[in-house]
Amino acid sequence: MRISPTAMHVPGSSTQPPACGDAFVSAVILSYNSVSTLPHVLSAVRNQTCGVSRIIIVDNGSTDGTQRYCEDACRDCALLLLPENRGIGAGHNLGWQTALAHPSCQFVWALEHDCIPDAHCLQELLAAYHAYAHHHPIGAVGPIQEANDNEPTGTTYVFGRTGLRKVTRLDKGSPATFRPHFTFNGTLFPRHVLRSVGPLNEALFIGHEDFEYARRLHRSGFAILRVSAAMIFHNPYKPHTRVNLLGRTFLLPGADITRSYYFNRNALYLEKLYGNRSLAVLRAMLRLPLTLAYILLCRDQKLRRAQACVLSIRDALRGNLGRRTYSFLPALGPGRHTRDENR
């Protein structure tokens, strides 16, 4: 049975009985052009020591064969195969709404197509939630992320938004710590929290939906917990541009133009929204010549990247959110359909 994109209710089902103290957990996986990585994520989710009760896959209009793979290999999952890319917020919202529509659902486990949870990850998240929920209003419980897991520690450096840092194995430290933020890579949300705080901000389209939602969680009185014993590997199969110099390996940033535009726009918009508007504008203006110089010296598609940089600032300051159709942004192709899991 096929259903139209305007009527995307997926009936509830369970491929295995609820586990881990009878907690009904719906794993929601958001995917986009991930035919090479999604099978690894699914295998890790299916092989949790604490079995999930339901798996929901939301595909955001993939064009690389991901949707065909889902139809062929994911018949035990609820599938929502969208005809176009509706953005991170809209994709997660749809999956979360589908999960919460099942009356037995107690937790939503948010995942994406490039994060692979350790076999004990969900079990540790649930244990930490139950240990702390009696003393604090817990809004989200997240794992520790390890990226670039195939890189040697101590000799590899990655360029990120916060500058150059050494790749290390994270110190697990105390059993759990309260944090100001989370990501959608393996974070567990209680049902009542999602009902109380509401959906993600879909106007951001791609980037920083997690930051904005964390702010709302805190404003609603909920704490965010990070569990050291719960591990997840992010982007373990993602290629990087490597430069070897003096016995060191440097991983150069690989964000495409589309992600760069949306992440920069949304970061400045939220900085302006939640902080000091004047300071946010001043910092953006000071960063602009440095960013343009970096693009000119180090990046490909220089003109397109420069356009993306300038217009991301303009749109953030004007509040021009949502999906944009600028000529320098590669087209996000259409997907195929939405399918009922009980076809």
Task: Explain how this protein is built.
- The protein is of the alpha/beta class and 343 residues long.
- It has 2 domains: 230 residues, Spore Coat Polysaccharide Biosynthesis Protein SpsA, Chain A, CATH 3.90.550; 63 residues, no CATH class.
- 34% of the residues lie in helices and 23% in strands.
- The chain contains 9 helices and 15 strands.
- The strands form 4 sheets. A 5-stranded mixed sheet has the order 4-3-2-5-11, sandwiched between helices. Strands 6, 7, 10 and 12 form a 4-stranded mixed sheet that branches.
- Helix 7 packs antiparallel against helix 8, helix 7 packs parallel to helix 9 and helix 8 packs antiparallel against helix 9.
- The radius of gyration is 20 Å and the shape is globular.
- The termini are close together.
List the helices and strands and how they pair.
Elements: E1 2-3, E2 25-31, H1 38-46, E3 54-59, H2 66-73, E4 78-81, H3 88-100, E5 107-112, E6 115-117, H4 121-132, E7 138-147, E8 156-160, E9 163-166, E10 176-179, E11 187-190, H5 191-197, H6 209-219, E12 223-234, E13 241-245, E14 248-252, H7 257-274, H8 277-298, H9 302-318, E15 338-339
Parallel strand pairs: 2-3, 2-5, 3-4, 7-12, 8-14
Antiparallel strand pairs: 1-15, 5-11, 6-12, 8-9, 10-12, 13-14
Helix pairs in contact: 7-8, 7-9, 8-9
